[in-house]
């Protein structure tokens, strides 16, 4: 594909990540991955244009059209051409943003000593300090022209993640946390992967009502039985208050995935209805939420067979 035939409307949003070695580039790439960027580390600058054309070809899914590319001093001779390559992109009308990560020399030296890794520009036996000095000289022009410079000297990883999100995904803090709410039955084993587990076996059990037993918490009769009781309404009020307390903390800490398990005895009635209600509440608060019902496929009627009604049967496999 020639430059003249590139469909600018479908070109990716491009972020060039660069900066001093030890200033947090790896952590930055993790953030962009979580933001659904297609990330390439240590790419020679001369290949950026080729990568853009590949990802801009028709048929590529939209989420692969946002690119984050690390170009830094590890490329040595290749890196020298980065400025000219960025100039070519601008001449072609392609938007990009340069994120430069920096830190004080003393902090960079301490990080290298802690990791016991060799600085990429100290290959000839030069000291870490000398490697940093060479790198600053090499990166000076890029730092001066960068759209964003972040000093990570006194930053912890969660602070860096928050700063990058504020620059490249403003207002999306909550959507950066992927929440999975799932129901389960304790008799089938406690969950191993849940960050939060809520035991709702203290609530009245629809299983003991012969008319409700064949159904699940996805069905209106069971859902109404579980949710519209005084004890459940009181529980939900307190449960939601707890979620309102802890969820912002998870977001601020930079957590990317959160699993909430809600369990009853068999994983068919109470936990299913309350998992659905919990997911709906978190969605209304702006979180990205998916829901699953771990043990719903094990539902048994009086004859020991799997029982679901037609309304619930279709979504079970994908929930």
From TrEMBL:
Residues in RapZ C-terminal domain copies: 177-297
Residue positions binding GTP: 72-75
Keywords attached to this entry: ATP-binding, GTP-binding, Nucleotide-binding
Residues binding ATP: 19-26
Keyword ATP-binding appears in the UniProt entry: yes
Gene Ontology molecular-function annotations: ATP binding; GTP binding
Domain of life: Bacteria
RapZ-like N-terminal domain location: 13-169
Listed NCBIfam families: PRK05416.1
Protein name: RNase adapter RapZ
Species assigned in the record: Paraeggerthella hongkongensis
């Amino acid at each position: 594909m020639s430059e003249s035939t590139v469909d600018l409307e479908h070109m990716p949003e491009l972020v060039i990540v660069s900066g001093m070695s030890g200033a947090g580039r790896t952590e930055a790439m993790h953030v962009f991955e979580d933001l659904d960027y297609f990330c390439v580390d240590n790419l020679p600058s001369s290949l950026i244009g080729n990568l853009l054309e590949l990802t801009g070809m028709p048929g590529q899914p939209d989420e692969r059209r946002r690119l984050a590319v690390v170009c830094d001093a590890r490329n040595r001779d290749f890196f020298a051409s980065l400025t000219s390559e960025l100039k070519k992109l601008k001449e072609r009308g392609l938007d990009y943003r340069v994120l430069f990560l920096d830190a004080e020399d003393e902090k960079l030296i301490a990080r290298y000593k802690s990791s016991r890794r060799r600085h990429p520009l100290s290959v000839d036996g030069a000291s870490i300090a000398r490697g940093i000095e060479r790198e600053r000289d090499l990166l000076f022009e890029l730092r001066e022209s960068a759209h964003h410079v972040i000093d990570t000297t006194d930053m912890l990883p969660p602070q860096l993640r928050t700063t990058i999100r504020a620059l490249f995904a403003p207002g999306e803090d909550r959507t950066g946390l992927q929440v999975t709410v799932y129901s389960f039955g304790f008799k089938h084993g406690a969950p191993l992967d849940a960050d939060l587990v809520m035991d709702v076996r203290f609530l009245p059990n629809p299983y003991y009502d012969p008319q409700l037993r064949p159904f699940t918490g996805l069905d209106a009769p069971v859902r109404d039985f579980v949710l519209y009781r005084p004890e459940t309404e009181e529980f939900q009020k307190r449960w939601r208050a707890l979620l309102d307390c802890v969820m912002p903390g998870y977001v601020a800490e930079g957590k990317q995935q959160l699993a909430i398990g809600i369990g009853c005895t068999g994983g068919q009635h109470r936990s299913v209805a309350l998992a659905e209600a919990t997911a709906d509440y978190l969605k209304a608060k702006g979180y990205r939420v998916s829901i699953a019902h771990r043990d719903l496929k094990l539902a048994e009627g009086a004859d020991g067979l799997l029982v679901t009604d037609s309304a619930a049967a279709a979504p079970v496999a994908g929930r």
